[in-house]
Amino acid sequence: MSLSTDSAAPGGDVFRVVGGARLVGEVRVPAAKNSVLKLMAAALLAPGRTTLTGAPDIDDLDVMASLLTSLGCEVTRDRDAATVAIDVPEEIGHRADYDLVRRIRASTAVLGPLVARTGSADLALPGGDAIGSRGIDMHIDALTALGAQCSSDHGYLHAHAPEGLRGARIAFDFPSVGATENAVLAAVLARGVTTVTNAAREPEIADLCQMLVSMGAQIDGIGSATLTIRGVERLSPTVHATVPDRIVAGTWAVAALMTRGDITIRNADATHLSLVLTKLSSAGADITVLEDGFRVVGRGQPTAVEVVTLPYPGFPTDLQPMMIALNSVSDGAAMVTENIYESRFRFVNELTRLGADIRTDGHHAFVRGQTRLSAAPVEATDIRAGAGLVLAGLVADGVTHVYGAHHIDRGYAGFAEILQSLGADVTRVSEVAP
Ligand code: EPU
After folding, report:
1. What is the pTM of this model?
2. 230/250 same-domain check
3. Residue partners of 95: CB distance under 8 A and separation at least 6
4. Residues 73, 186 within the same domain
5. Residue in 123, 340, 341, 363 to alter for ligand 1 test, most ligand atoms within 8 A of Cβ
């Protein structure tokens, strides 16, 4: 199992994608990766057994489980039942090693719980990755406002609050997902009241807050840009059903439109994708919202649509590569603007290997659509780029090999199998003959 966020290791698995199929059928969306990993970290706040249901079968959960185990917890994953149970002892460790932190960004979510529970945290600095520099300065500012003393040396952040944390006003310059999560995770056990303004509003943050409330935390303003947290002395373990993965749901929606297919996407919340579905509808998709999801039908060539990524409820950056792939085979031309990550257009060079007509300039990508792409070997550099490249391969003439399959595995459980169930000829091969 390779989990590096860097380029694919030579000899790693490859997705072999035969272009041309129309995707038809039904998919069930698992729980959100970017929620469940933080919920696992949140379990640290209460001694006892916390159980998360609907856990996706992705490798990142194993990394978070190893991190929690290294902190003294016992983590039990039942893949058949899709649950993960975390037994948290009264005394936990406070060090998160580089070996684990470098593999998943979400590991930074242990910072708040560790300082809140133990008064101390030594967290390996995560560094940047394939999509951007990904600093944690706002996480540090939030912890500092709550009374922790923070310093760093030898690649580690040290946060100390021997007398405990105290409520504070935290005003973010930018609604960072991870910094908002760490602020909340620390403030729930601080003395007094904390207000977080310009908080990130992603559904995964509301999910985290709801789980914390079920553990006994007092949080007002859930889902809004202002969170008010009244610290409590102790939290209790809980059982929590994780929010569905809106990025996985959105990926299937784009796939339906690109392949002129018909996919019913179950266990998805259309309200979490309202701007995405509006864009896909402008691009030509017929969308029907159902009780437990939605159905997307593509008829004829899509129309290119402008996309501007922004924090929620803006257009999610994690669906940007799929939208560039979609525009590459659409009628017309459109600008895609990326406002979250400075390097998220890196995969565009791979897409141009498939014949896509894309010009990038800073954080803009101008995409001219065409009727078809032409198959070639390409390399995934991160989860979402990988998914975008597979979708592009589905509408390319011939056989596309997408290297770096392990990146895709981090966010999409059973990606090839699900594509096969929808009628695509996609297989996983361990090496490709020259
Ligand atoms: N940033 C800073 N300093 C900070 C925090 C963030 O400069 O202290 C910058 C980052 O470098 C980045 C931007 O602010 O350029 C956004 O960062 P944010 O904190 O909002 O995102 P994150 O918590 O690092 C999560 C998801 C990402 C998703 C973003 C935005 C997890 C584990 N990751 O990252 O998911 O793109 O929110 O929605 O939750 C993915 O799943 O493929 C993925 C990259």
Report:
1. 0.96
2. no
3. 70, 71, 121, 122, 123
4. yes
5. 340
Task: Say if residue 80 is exposed, middle or buried (CB neighbours under 10 Å; 0-12, 13-18, 19+).
Answer: exposed
| Ligand 1 pocket test, candidate residues 3, 105, 173, 177, most atoms within 8 A of CB | 177
CATH code (residue 140): 3.65.10.10
Q: What is the pLDDT of residue 8?
A: 36
Q: In ligand 1, which atom is closest to the CA atom of 105?
A: 32
Tell whether 324 and 295 lie within a shared domain: yes
- pLDDT tens for each residue of 75-112: 999 999 999 999 999 999 999 999 999 999 999 999 99
Rounded to whole angstroms, how far apart are CA atoms 228 and 420? 46
Does residue 5 fall inside a structural domain?
no
Per-residue CA distances from 143 to 46, 140, 165, 179, 347 (Å) = 19, 5, 8, 9, 34
Answer yes or no: do 231 and 360 share one domain: no
CA–CA gap between residue 81 and residue 74 (Å, rounded) = 18
Q: Are residues 138 and 262 in the same domain?
A: no
Do residue 178 and residue 274 come from a single domain? no
Taking only the tens place, the pLDDT of each residue in 286-330 is 999 999 999 999 999 999 999 999 999 999 999 999 999 999 999
Ligand 1 atom nearest the C-alpha of 247 is 41
Are residues 264 and 216 part of one domain?
A: no
Active site residue 129: yes
8: in domain: no
**Ligand 1 centroid – CA 340 distance (Å):** 8
What is the Å distance from ligand 1's center to 144 Cα? 20
CB 431 near ligand 1, within 6 Å: no
The parent domain of residue 134 ranges over: 33-241
Atom of ligand 1 nearest to the CA of 177: 20
Instruction: Report the DSSP pairing between strands 74-78 and 24-28.
Output: unpaired
Distance 134 CA to ligand 1 centre (A): 7
Catalytic residue among 129, 245, 318, 409: 129
Domain boundary among the residues 241, 262, 291 is at 241
- 54 falls in which pLDDT band (50, 70, 90)? confident
233 and 266 inside one domain: no
pLDDT digits (tens, 9 = 90+) for 335-361: 999 999 999 999 999 999 999 999 999
- State the total domains in the chain: 2
